[in-house]
Amino acid sequence: MKKLSLLIILVVLSAAFAGCSKPEMKSVTMHWGEVNSTTTQIISNVYVSNPLPFSIPLSGVNVKIYMNGIEMGTGYSVGKTDISPPGGTIRLVINLMNSKLVDWWCSHIRNGERTTVKIVSDLQFSILGFKFGIPITKVNEFKTDLLSGIRTKNVDITVDGINVGEVKDLNLRWGDVTHDTTQIIASGTVVNNMPIPLYLRYFEYHIYMNGIDMGRGKITSTKIIKPKSQGRVEFTMLLQNSKIPEWWVTHIKNGEKTTVKIVTGLGMEINGKDVFIGLQSYKYTFHTNILSMH
Fold it and tell me: Mean pLDDT over residues 171-175, rounded?
């Protein structure tokens, strides 16, 4: 009787692999799992149809996640690993390694704030010597606008109630990106309405993302704006890339939402008096939908 059952299974398997109905992936859903300082989990539920009259066991899983071509982590199966007819769900856990996030960040900024996420899976099944795999590839592209979404405005320079000038045409743009830092270039035009020179002494900045201190600094300057004239100024802010994993955790836990805040100011000497002008607190909130795969 046992031999007959095995023979029937072999006949059914032979028919399946000869072109008849065979198990296949029908749907995939994904959501975030546990997120901590070292790992970001992605939970993937894969529904596999099984037209065969008996269960098929999962014999192996190969899962990798890529962001802009960078391998970010691997995955494994958990829970029930056999598919009974007419179908069942294989649960995968994908561990994205936060230590890889700096490499991803650099690629994201260099790529015009665009990222392609790809999750490649291969479910391996084996029964009575018959082996087959179900390859699955899910892709999503997302874009951010960390700087272009920030709106700037002109700032009056006032000393003792007297308007002595203006800072206008403020602009923020990306500079060089290395493994350690990401440059943000701040530029603008300083207008001097007075009959005496205006001396720029320093530029000060603080960068926050979801409240995380991403970078701060005080840059000295020797720029002089001549009387009744204007001059273009430019300063380089440094975002510390070592903070990216810490920010990432807040972004995912916050429903993939981040508020960027950049606080800047200029230190000046006007008629022998030191003056600090708070330029503007730039603020912008952006969202992503990283797991919206197709």
Answer: 93
CATH number of domain containing 248: 2.60.40.10
The pLDDT value given to residue 12: 47
198, 190 Cβ separation under 8 angstroms: yes
Compute the mean pLDDT over every residue in the chain, rounded to the nearest whole number. Answer: 91
Q: State which residues form the domain around 252.
A: 155-287
The string of DSSP codes covering 39-78 is EEEEEEEEEEE--SSS-EEEEEEEEEEEETTEEEEEEEEE
**Where does residue 15 fall: left (phi above 0), alpha (psi -120 to 50 degrees), or beta otherwise?**
alpha
Q: The pTM is what?
A: 0.89
Alpha carbons 269 and 291: distance in angstroms, whole number: 52
**Cis, peptide link before residue 86, omega less than 30° from 0:** yes
Query: Where does a domain end: 143, 178, 202?
Result: 143
Per-residue pLDDT reduced to its tens digit, 248-276: 999 999 999 999 999 999 999 998 899 99
Are 172 and 152 spatial neighbours (Cβ–Cβ below 8 Å)?
yes
Residue 149 lies in a domain: no
pLDDT one-digit tens code per residue, 130-160 = 889 999 999 999 999 888 767 678 889 888 8
Residue 234 inside a domain? The answer is yes
Assigned domain for 148 exists: no
Please give the backbone phi and psi of residue 149, each rounded to the nearest 5 degrees, phi first. Answer: -80, -10
